[in-house]
């Protein structure tokens, strides 16, 4: 993969030790799956500073309030998630909460219920939309949103999938854990707007073919994740798969004056 020429100077400076890479922010991304192995993808607006025009999974940076211990928690414990994600407990708590929060913000799908055995059936009402918008503009904390509705975070509905770190030459960097989750029964996604101008449900192989034909743009982590998902015929097979979460950080190298990304 060839990168823009403007990264060449940064790559050289970092290699020479004269420039420190920008710190990577903790982030979470969720691959939302239907039973028929379609995945939910959003096209980021062309005006976005990061990944403009790319088709991506729902996700975003961890909000410091995502680590609030007041959030009602069901499923694997924070300690168990820390072990799976290979992180400290505070980071694990923030990542799991960010995964659920960002999924709701960007798709309208909420992995939470009134008890550890339930999931909310419908989030399409005006009151839900008001809360979603308040979460997006950060006027409402995720803990307060769950508490006022008496909801429990269903962490058991998430499965850790991968860990990608943005190359050190980028000016915006993220330390992102990828999760997978099934679309809960009764819930449906919506064209929620915000950072995206289009949403689609697509089979992984179809999305890859569109990208190979130049019809859509996929970032390397999205492309690789879709490649991995082509090995499964049904969503339940994805959740049964064994995964070991190890960091993947693409390297940037210079070949004959051209910057290239090596996976």
UniProtKB/TrEMBL annotation:
CDD domains: NUDIX_AcylCoAdiphos_Nudt19
Keyword check for Hydrolase: yes
Cofactors (names): Mn(2+); Mg(2+)
Superkingdom field: Bacteria
PROSITE patterns for this protein: NUDIX (PS51462)
Annotated ranges, domain Nudix hydrolase: 23-224
GO terms, molecular function: hydrolase activity, acting on acid anhydrides, in phosphorus-containing anhydrides; metal ion binding
Keyword Hydrolase in record: yes
Entry keywords, A to Z: Hydrolase, Magnesium, Manganese, Metal-binding
PANTHER family for the chain: ACYL-COENZYME A DIPHOSPHATASE NUDT19 (PTHR12318:SF0), TESTOSTERONE-REGULATED PROTEIN RP2 (PTHR12318)
This protein's name: 8-oxo-dGTP pyrophosphatase MutT (NUDIX family)
Species: Nonomuraea soli
Lineage: Bacteria, Bacillati, Actinomycetota, Actinomycetes, Streptosporangiales
């Amino acid at each position: 993969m060839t990168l823009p020429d403007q990264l060449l100077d940064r790559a050289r400076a970092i290699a020479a030790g004269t420039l420190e890479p920008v710190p990577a922010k903790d982030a979470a991304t969720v691959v939302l799956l239907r039973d028929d192995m379609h995945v939910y993808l959003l096209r980021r607006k062309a005006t976005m500073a990061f990944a403009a025009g790319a088709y991506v999974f729902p996700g975003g940076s961890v909000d410091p309030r995502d680590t609030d211990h007041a959030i009602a928690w069901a499923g694997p414990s924070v300690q168990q998630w820390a072990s799976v994600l290979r992180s400290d407990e505070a980071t694990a708590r923030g990542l799991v909460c960010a995964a659920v929060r960002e999924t709701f913000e960007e798709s309208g799908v909420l992995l939470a219920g009134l008890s550890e055995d339930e999931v909310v059936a419908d989030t399409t009402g005006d009151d839900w939309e008001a809360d979603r918008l308040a979460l997006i503009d950060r006027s409402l904390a995720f803990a307060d949103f769950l508490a006022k509705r008496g909801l429990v975070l269903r962490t058991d509905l998430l499965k850790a999938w991968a860990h990608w770190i943005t190359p050190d030459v980028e000016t915006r960097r993220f330390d992102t854990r990828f999760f997978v989750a099934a679309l809960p029964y009764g819930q449906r996604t919506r064209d929620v707007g915000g950072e995206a101008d289009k949403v689609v449900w697509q089979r992984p192989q179809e999305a890859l073919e569109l990208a190979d034909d130049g019809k859509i743009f996929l970032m390397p982590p999205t492309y690789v994740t879709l490649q991995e998902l082509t090995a499964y015929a049904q969503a339940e097979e994805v959740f049964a798969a064994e995964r070991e979460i190890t960091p993947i950080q693409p390297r940037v190298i210079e070949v004959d004056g051209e910057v290239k990304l090596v996976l």
